[in-house]
Design goal:
Layout (H helix, E strand, L loop, with lengths): L1 H18 L2 E7 L2 E5 L5 E7 L1 E2 L7 E5 L2 E5 L5 E7 L1 E2 L7 E5 L2 E5 L21 E6 L2 E6 L4 E7 L1 E6 L2 E6 L2 E6 L4 E7 L1 E2 L8 E4 L2 E6 L2 E4 L3 E4 L9 E5 L2 E5 L5 E7 L1 E2 L6 E6 L2 E6 L4 E7 L1 E2 L8 E4 L4 E4 L5 E7 L18 E2 L2 E6 L2 E6 L4 E6 L1 E2 L3 E2 L3
Antiparallel strand pairs: 1-2, 1-38, 1-39, 2-3, 4-5, 5-6, 6-7, 8-9, 9-10, 11-12, 12-13, 14-15, 15-16, 16-17, 18-19, 19-20, 20-21, 22-23, 23-24, 24-25, 26-27, 27-28, 28-29, 30-31, 31-32, 32-33, 34-35, 35-36, 36-37
Length: 378
């Protein structure tokens, strides 16, 4: 009985490890491949071009044609397309003979209504366009929202901004109006708060009621990591809560988001960190500073290079890296992507990219380029 249980446990652990595999796109000697979190190649560099995984599949190019591979490096869809977009909600956009279409992982084409322009699926829906108006289709290719709005943005936390005439509101992924289009600007939805602007007045939306906040001329989006977001009044930055109260009065020249209980703020030409009570926790002495990761480490810069501190301000990884640019595709990273993610941080040293662990050790080797790790089990 014990041997059977042991076998079952090992099998279960193996299934979890396989299903939770994270891979990072890297380039070596001009070819693209993928490494695992030990730094070993899970898929050897062999592709002319490639993208990071989007769930179970990644776009890759061979002989000037694009197809899709799985996490084992096997072709799920042979390279046959001129251009492709990432899989989302079970479908990817592909270009063949100058025509765009949606395909699934079996390379089957989705029948959709006629549209003037094709958009990626997002959160189970895709935009369709008719003239100047846009609507939505679902993953069955059925219209769930006739084209009647001038714009629909990407879905954040289940909701998308939409523009009706000159006003903005929020939609859910069924095409239903969540917040009516009554605002000149509106933030991305978060469980911690939602801001909007009417005319010159910035304020907070709660249960459909807009409450303006006197003196504010900009509010940044709430995240799901803190009940506070930063706002600007008279050119100074402070923090408000989800009902529009100043919790930390505007006293800083610049600010970034709270995470792990701390936020970087800029004062007297230096960056430091405060807690959610507005108390200084880490001295103002850095040339630049990013938000804390969930592991309690944050990237900071004193001169030209970056290192990492812990929540007491101790330097735990020396300042000898660059973190700021977005690898082979040149995308600017969000603050959270510049630090540690699930135990590893993507860094650059002497013109090469790689990953370090929380002890500051290089995982694997340095690469010509590298992108962040992606979970391939979704």
């Amino acid at each position: 009985m014990r041997s059977i249980l042991t076998f079952v446990c090992i099998l279960f652990i193996g299934i979890i490890a396989t299903s939770a595999q994270e891979l990072a796109l890297v380039r070596d000697d001009g070819s693209f491949g993928y490494i695992n979190k030990t730094g070993e190649f899970a898929i050897q560099p062999q592709f002319d071009k490639a993208d990071s995984f989007s769930g179970k599949y990644a776009a890759a190019m061979k002989d000037k044609k694009w197809g899709f591979i799985n996490a084992s490096g096997e072709w799920v869809i042979q390279p046959q397309y001129d251009r492709v977009k990432a899989f989302n909600s079970g479908y990817a956009l592909v270009l063949e003979d100058k025509d765009w279409k949606y395909i699934n992982s079996k390379n089957e084409t989705l029948t959709t209504p006629t549209t003037d322009k094709y958009y990626d699926f997002d959160n189970g829906v895709a935009i369709i366009r008719s003239g100047d108006n846009v609507g939505l289709i679902d993953t069955n290719g059925k219209t769930i929202l006739e084209p009647k709005y001038s714009e629909i943005k990407g879905f954040i936390n289940g909701y998308a901004k939409f523009k009706d005439g000159e006003k903005w509101g929020l939609l859910n992924n069924k095409g239903d109006v969540f917040v009516p289009a009554e605002y000149d600007e509106i933030g991305d939805f978060s469980k911690n708060g939602l801001w909007a602007r009417k005319g010159d007045s910035f304020g907070i939306l709660n249960d459909g009621i807009f409450t303006s906040i006197a003196g504010i001329d900009k509010i940044w989006d709430f995240t799901n990591d803190s009940p506070l977001t930063y706002a600007r009044s008279a050119e100074m930055m402070g923090f408000i809560n989800g009902i529009g109260e100043w919790i930390i009065e505007p006293a800083y020249d610049k600010a970034r988001a709270f995470n792990a209980g701390l936020a970087p703020v800029y004062k007297d030409k230096n960056w430091g960190y405060i807690n959610e009570k507005g108390e200084k926790v880490i001295d103002f002495k850095y040339r630049d500073a990013e938000i804390f990761s969930d592991n309690g480490f944050a990237p900071v810069k004193e001169k030209k290079l970056w290192g990492f501190i812990d929540k007491t301000g101790n330097l735990v990884i020396p300042m000898e890296y660059d973190i700021s640019t977005g690898g082979m595709f040149g995308f600017l990273q969000k603050g959270a992507e510049k630090g540690f993610q699930n135990g590893l941080a993507r860094v650059k040293k002497k013109k090469e990219w790689g990953f370090i662990n929380e002890s500051g050790q290089v995982v694997g080797k340095w690469h010509q380029n590298a992108e962040n790790f992606v979970d391939t089990s979704k």
